[in-house]
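Query structure, 249 tokens:
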């Protein structure tokens, strides 16, 4: 009977196994490094895009803040005009149309709305980790925190405005204004709805409370204006920092 002999398989030495394992490890490791490099390049590109977008948002914030300051100044002037009237007319039982308009102007102010487009994208995508520069990350966090504080003050500020409006409705005689109410077609009263020479009766019972309330409104408006002026400076400083650190000039 013919016997078939199987060819002998050459056994690998220990060193060959070590070498093959090392080659596999190096291949995996180099692939890992290449993937990390690719991700970093991608992240750096996204980071700069976010910073460019953030600079635009900061410019929008600055423009919005600057546009709002004249409204606060107008409100302060109206409050002072009301003070002057009651200072020169103690015990008054009626006001003129001009004083009425100043009272109405003193009860409202502009609402500031921050541009949160980029910061929301960064938060939702966990993109804050993309900001490598610690000074930019810290400054952005501080700027963000101050906007949260302004939101808190904003709520208190407008609650007091509503209180002023409610007190004014108690003080003004509706019978002298009901015709103007009916004819008015705008948010603010149209000129000519109330005759220039008309007198609008007021309830003396509420004058003392109203004047004290107006003083509180003036103080809060001054404080609010100062806070937003400081925030405008912060926005401009953060914008300059980002432009410098990311060479966006």
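Result returned for the query:
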């Amino acid at each position: 009977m013919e016997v078939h002999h199987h060819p002998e398989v050459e056994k690998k030495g220990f060193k060959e196994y070590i070498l093959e394992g090392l080659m596999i490890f190096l291949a995996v490791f180099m692939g890992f490094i290449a993937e990390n490099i690719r991700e970093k390049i991608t992240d750096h590109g996204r980071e700069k895009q976010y910073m460019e977008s953030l600079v635009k948002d900061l410019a929008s914030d600055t423009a919005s803040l600057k546009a709002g300051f004249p409204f606060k100044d107008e409100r302060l002037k109206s409050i002072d005009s009301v003070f002057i009237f009651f200072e020169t007319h103690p015990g008054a039982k009626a006001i003129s149309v001009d004083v009425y308009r100043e009272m109405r102007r003193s009860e409202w102010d502009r609402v500031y709305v921050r541009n949160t487009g980029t910061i929301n994208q960064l938060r939702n995508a966990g993109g804050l980790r993309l900001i490598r520069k610690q000074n930019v990350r810290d400054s952005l966090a501080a700027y963000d925190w101050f906007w949260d504080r302004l939101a808190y003050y904003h709520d208190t500020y407008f609650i007091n405005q509503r209180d002023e409006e409610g007190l004014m409705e108690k003080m003004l005689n509706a019978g002298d204004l009901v015709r103007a109410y009916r004819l008015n077609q705008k948010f603010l009263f149209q000129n000519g709805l109330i005759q220039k020479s008309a007198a609008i009766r007021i309830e003396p019972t509420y004058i003392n409370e109203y004047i004290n309330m107006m003083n509180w409104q003036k103080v809060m408006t001054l404080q609010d204006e100062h806070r937003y002026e400081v925030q405008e400076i912060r926005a401009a400083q953060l914008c300059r920092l980002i432009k410098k650190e990311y060479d966006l000039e």
